[in-house]
Design a protein that fits this description.
Strand content: 25-35%
Oligomer: single chain
Largest sheet: 4 strands, antiparallel
Radius of gyration: 26 Å
Structural class: alpha+beta
Organism: Sphaerodactylus townsendi
Order of helices and strands: EEEEEEEEEEEEEEEEEEEHHH
Shape: globular
Protein name: DNA damage-binding protein 2
Helix content: 10-25%
Number of strands: 19
């Protein structure tokens, strides 16, 4: 994971080491920060010295890059029940952290209290040797979470006809909003990534990649995702960063609407006054 501001690249290895490199490839330091394989490392988009690392040792750790000396220097450790595949900061403002374990749980942490999860989302995506690790990811503009589903007979609510869908969740509430499914591609979808604009989704499945565009969503009756994105843009609550700006834009639009309605009312009032004046003048001339 690179940091353009710090001009560094950070990565992990199979035995728990995290390595910080300069952009020219020179090693700055290499420290053993986890007991087992490091699966994911990421800088925070809004705070370039904040670093998250995930490992199969069942922990996610948050670090201050300026103060790392050894494995005891973490800011927070987030214990999980299973190994962890990924830990992504929210791309809008970095105030949330999305983690995916290796069995059936997605978690959302908030900067208001990193020590405990804000939401626990039960979700079947169990791990096995020959399957690419399933990782939940963020939408780039809204608090939406996307993850591939691997139906599990032991998971609560399992049905025989359950499909291998792409599931979309609300990052604010943890509730599922909709599911995407292509009957012509029924494999397990391990990786999902939106483009920077957020209007196209790429889904990786075995030797194939599915591209879900807005047109495809309409064609495949997947209006629910677009509706969820629209609702997220209009119904932002208590957020900062781009979502906060959208909230401000919504307020501005409401203000414009209100002013417009006032203008309409004023024009109606003026029109009535003009009409009444004309009537009075007409009566005066008749008299």
């Amino acid at each position: 994971m690179p940091s353009a501001i710090c001009r560094t690249v950070v990565t992990g290895d199979n035995v728990g080491n995290v390595i910080l490199l300069g952009t020219e490839g020179e090693k700055i330091w290499s420290l053993k920060l986890h007991k087992r394989k490091v699966t994911h490392v990421e800088f925070n988009c809004s705070c370039d010295w904040l670093l998250a690392t995930a490992s199969v040792d069942q922990t996610v750790k948050i670090w201050d890059l300026r103060k790392i000396k050894d494995k005891s220097c973490y800011l927070y450790t987030l214990p999980h029940d299973k190994g962890v595949n990924a830990a992504y900061f929210s791309p809008t403002d970095g105030s949330k952290l999305l983690t995916t374990d290796q069995h059936s749980e997605i978690r959302v942490y908030s900067s208001s209290d990193w020590s405990k999860p804000q939401h626990l989302i039960p979700h079947p995506h169990r791990q096995f040797q020959h399957l690419t690790s399933i990782k939940a990811t963020w939408h780039p503009r809204y608090d939406l979470i996307v993850a591939g589903r691997y139906p599990d007979p032991n998971f609560p609510g399992y049905t025989v006809d359950e499909l291998r869908t792409v599931d979309i969740f609300d990052g604010d509430s943890g509730k599922m909003l909709c599911q995407l499914y292509d009957p012509n591609a029924s494999g397990i979808i391990s990786l999902n990534k939106f483009n920077p604009m957020g209007d196209t989704l790429a889904s990786g499945m075995g030797f194939n990649i599915l591209i879900w565009s807005r047109e495809e969503m309409v064609t495949r009756k997947q209006e629910c995702l677009m509706q969820a994105m629209t609702e997220q843009g209009i119904g932002s609550r208590g957020s900062t960063g781009p979502r906060g700006r959208r909230q401000s834009n919504t307020g501005t639009n409401r203000l414009k609407t209100k002013l417009l309605s006032l203008d309409v009312e004023r024009s109606k009032t003026n029109s009535k006054e003009c009409t009444s004046q004309k009537k009075r003048k007409g009566k005066g001339s008749e008299d």
